[in-house]
Amino acid sequence: MIRVIAKQYVDERKMDAYLAVVKELIEKTRAMDKGCISYTLCQDIKKANIMTFIEEWESMEALNNHMQTEHFKTLGAKLSDFYEARTELNIYKEYI
Question: By its UniProt entry, which PROSITE patterns does this protein fall under (predicted)?
Answer without folding.
Answer: ABM
